[in-house]
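Crash report, auto-generated. Payload:
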Amino acid sequence: MNELRLACVVGARPNFMKMAPLLRALEKHRHVRTTLIHTGQHYDASLSDVFFEELGMRHPDVCLDVGSGKHGAQTARVLERMEEVLQSRRDGSRFDRLVVVGDVNSTMAASLAAVKLGIPVAHVEAGLRSNDRSMPEEINRLVTDAVSDLLFVSEPAGLENLRREGHVEKQLHLVGNVMIDTLRWLLPKAKARDTLRRFGLEPGRYGVVTLHRPGNVDEPKTLSGLIDVLVDASRKLPLVFPVHPRTKQRLERFDLAAKLAAARSILQIPPLGYLDFLALSSQARVVITDSGGLQEESTALGIPCLTARPNTERPVTVEEGTSTLVGSDPRELRRRLSEVLDGRYKEGRCPALWDGRAAERIAAVLANHSDADAVLPGAETPRREEAAAYL
Ligand code: UD1
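Recovered output after restart:
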């Protein structure tokens, strides 16, 4: 078989646990060569390095060092630097394909750079839609899917969304959830750690909180309301809250840090590595979050998840799993929390194909996919005007 050269891109924290199992699965196909490119969207050790270490991922072959910035600036830096990298293979050969995961700015920008050079793009975690274009991730998902010709989907709603947007069947693969591959692989190791003891917590007797979405933390009024909700909830159950750098900045800027610090049953800690965080989330009584990935992880773990968002692009976590959307309404959160504490909360079940083998399925498709199978974005798509209307 001819060598297949894949450029694999990561940029921000939630990308790492999705790419790690995929790289491992691709290594088993001997004709596949991967080049790992880190855009540097996340650069702090606690948001990046620790994940490479714990997930057993090799060092990136290329780092773009784009860093933080406004959306336009950050996206533009990735686009410009990716274009250079994709054009500059030392032996003059081209990459056969770009592989991206998730929905962060790096995902979208890298995809655009590739498709403009005629390099086909595979998107892992395609088709998710919150239908809320005020979320930066929703724009990233729409653009990435529109320029990708291979779409790997984690839940049935994703297939429906992509069909509605004009993608054809041979582009679509329902494969399960690569993030859950990593969870299943590392759960025993995480549970064996002394994380709970270090934080003075007992299994099943605390809640885990994460908040970082711009929609929740960038407006003083919204963030203040959510902090009130947490303070209220902490009277019933101690909470541990690893604080994302963005949230930390906003708490300080809006003079809310002191209010949070005054709540004795809320333990604020810096962002954790993968294993410590999984140790906490897997043994919690409840998770309160606005993270997409954590909604999925809680569902796979069977832990109740009160999602502080008005909508979700991952409906299976609500319809089949353990998540409930509570928005930023204190009454709704209080009501659902009581259900959890009184043992009245729904059980939930793990969605089909979230079995730890999604990356194997994706690698098999990628490894056996030839140019002859390629569907160029837009071309051959019977409803391409319709697809364009979505952008
Ligand atoms: C990004 C993703 C989001 C994902 C989240 C996980 C986008 C649009 N958003 O959000 O989907 O859920 O990552 O964490 O891509 N910062 C640091 N150190 C870092 C990186 C960032 O302190 O290593 C601070 C900077 O002040 C930066 C802010 O965090 O401005 C936000 O970082 P950014 O990458 O823009 O978005 P996230 O909020 O992390």
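Post-recovery validation: The radius of gyration is 21 Å.
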